[in-house]
Recover the amino acids of this structure.
C-alpha cells in the first residue's frame, strides 16, 4: 500500500475511533442519564473558579460537560489511579508528572506493554485553552475524545484498556471512595460509574490545571517591575523581535498560536514545519512522524506539528514532537541554524532547506550574552507554584497508588 493509501487507511481508522467515541459518550440508560451523557460538542465559557488573575480570560468547555468542583475532585483521583491501566502499573500521571509541568521527561512515552509512543508527552498545563489537542491531529478537539486514546488505543498501546469497559467499572466500583465521588460529580446520572463519566471527570480535572502566575506574568500583566531580571527583560525583547521571529508561533496568552478562550471564541489553529528533518532532500520526515500529513494526506502538510505552549518550558525537556532535542540551548541552536542538519544515519538531511519549512524559521545569529538573556526569559515562564500546587497533586495515600 502506498503512502497515500496508508494515510487514507489511518484517516478511516481515526474516523471509526471518533464514531466509537461519540457512541460511548451518548450511551444512556434512562432519561436523566441522557441529559448527563449527551454527546460532546458545543463550547461555552466555563463558569468554574480556576483561580485566574483578573487579566486572564476564562477557558471554553463543552456545554455537555461543565467543570464543577466535584468533577475536578473525582478526576484528580482517577488521574493518579493505576487501576486505569491493564496491569495496574500506570496511571495518566505516569506520563504527566506535576513536577515536570505534567510532562514525563522522556523523549517519547512508554505504555504498559513497553511499547513506545511516536511522540513526546505534551504538557497538560493550560490545556483548556487549546481548540485542538496533541501534536498533530486537527480532528481531536475535546479532552473527552482525547482521553480515550491513551485509555483504549492499540497503535500504540498506552494504558491498554481496550475491550475492558466492564472491568474498568468493576475495578472502580469496589472502591468505597468512588461511590461517593461519582455520586457527587454526576448526580444527574445517579452517580453512574462508566467509561463516559470517567473520561468526563478526567477532562474536568485536566481543564483545571491552569498556570498564570509565572514571574513573566507578574511582570507583563500585573506591573511587577521586580519580577524579572534585567537579563530576562532583554531576552523578552529578543524573543518578540522580528530578528528571531519566535513570537509568530509562540504568542499571546499561552505563548502558542493555537488558542481558544472567552475573548477568542472562534479560536485559532496552526501547525508548522520547523525544518527538524529532511530525509530525502524533498522534505520527508520519519515515516511514523509525518505531522498532520498523516491525517490530511497532503504533501505540503509534511512535518507540520502544533506549536506547544512555552509556559513552564524550562522544566519540560526534552523538546520537539519526538523529544529529539535535549536542552533549551540545543533548541536555540536548531532555530538559529534555520533548521537542523543531521550529518549521518537514517535521519540524515539538511532541515534548513526543507521545502515545507515555515518562513518563520529563517535562522539568526546571537552573541553568547544574547543567548543567556533568551534562556533567562524562557526560564521566567516557569510557574513554580503550579509545580507544587496541592490542588493538582496525587490525592491517594502512598499505599494505595500501587493497586
Amino acid at each position: 500500500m502506498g503512502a497515500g493509501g496508508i494515510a487514507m487507511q489511518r484517516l478511516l481508522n481515526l474516523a471509526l475511533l471518533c464514531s466509537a467515541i461519540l457512541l460511548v459518550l451518548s450511551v444512556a440508560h434512562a432519561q436523566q442519564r441522557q441529559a448527563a451523557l449527551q454527546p460532546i460538542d458545543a463550547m461555552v465559557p466555563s463558569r468554574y473558579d480556576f483561580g485566574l488573575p483578573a487579566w486572564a480570560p476564562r477557558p471554553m468547555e463543552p456545554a455537555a460537560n461543565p467543570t464543577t468542583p466535584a468533577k475536578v475532585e473525582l478526576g484528580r483521583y482517577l488521574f493518579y489511579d493505576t487501576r486505569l491501566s491493564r496491569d495496574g502499573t500506570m496511571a495518566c500521571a505516569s506520563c504527566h508528572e506535576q513536577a515536570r509541568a505534567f510532562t514525563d521527561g522522556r523523549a517519547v512515552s512508554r505504555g504498559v506493554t513497553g511499547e513506545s509512543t511516536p511522540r513526546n508527552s505534551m504538557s497538560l498545563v493550560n490545556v483548556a485553552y487549546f481548540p485542538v489537542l496533541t501534536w498533530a491531529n486537527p480532528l481531536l478537539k475535546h479532552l473527552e475524545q482525547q482521553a480515550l486514546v491513551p485509555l483504549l488505543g492499540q497503535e500504540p498501546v498506552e494504558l491498554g484498556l481496550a475491550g475492558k469497559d466492564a472491568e474498568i467499572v468493576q475495578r472502580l466500583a469496589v472502591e468505597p471512595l468512588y461511590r461517593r465521588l461519582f455520586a457527587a460529580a454526576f448526580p444527574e446520572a445517579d452517580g453512574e460509574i462508566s467509561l463516559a463519566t470517567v473520561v468526563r471527570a478526567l477532562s474536568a480535572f485536566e481543564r483545571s490545571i491552569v498556570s498564570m502566575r509565572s514571574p513573566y506574568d507578574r511582570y507583563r500583566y500585573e506591573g511587577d517591575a521586580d519580577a524579572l531580571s534585567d537579563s530576562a527583560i532583554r531576552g523578552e525583547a529578543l524573543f518578540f523581535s522580528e530578528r528571531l521571529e519566535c513570537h509568530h508561533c509562540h504568542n499571546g496568552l499561552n505563548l502558542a498560536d493555537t488558542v481558544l478562550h472567552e475573548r477568542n471564541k472562534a479560536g485559532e489553529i496552526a501547525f508548522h514545519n520547523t525544518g527538524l528533518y529532511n530525509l530525502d532532500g524533498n522534505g520527508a520526515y520519519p515515516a511514523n512522524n509525518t505531522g498532520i500529513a498523516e491525517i490530511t494526506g497532503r504533501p505540503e502538510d509534511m512535518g507540520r506539528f502544533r506549536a506547544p505552549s512555552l509556559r513552564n518550558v524550562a522544566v519540560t525537556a526534552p523538546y520537539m514532537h519526538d523529544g529529539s532535542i535535549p536542552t533549551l540551548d540545543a533548541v536555540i541552536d536548531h532555530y538559529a541554524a534555520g533548521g537542523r542538519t543531521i550529518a549521518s544515519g537514517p535521519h540524515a538531511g539538511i532541515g534548513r532547506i526543507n521545502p515545507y519549512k515555515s518562513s518563520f524559521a529563517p535562522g539568526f545569529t546571537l552573541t553568547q550574552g544574547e543567548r543567556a538573556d533568551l534562556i533567562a526569559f524562557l526560564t521566567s515562564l516557569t510557574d513554580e507554584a503550579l509545580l507544587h500546587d496541592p490542588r493538582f497533586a496525587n490525592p491517594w495515600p502512598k499505599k494505595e497508588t500501587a493497586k
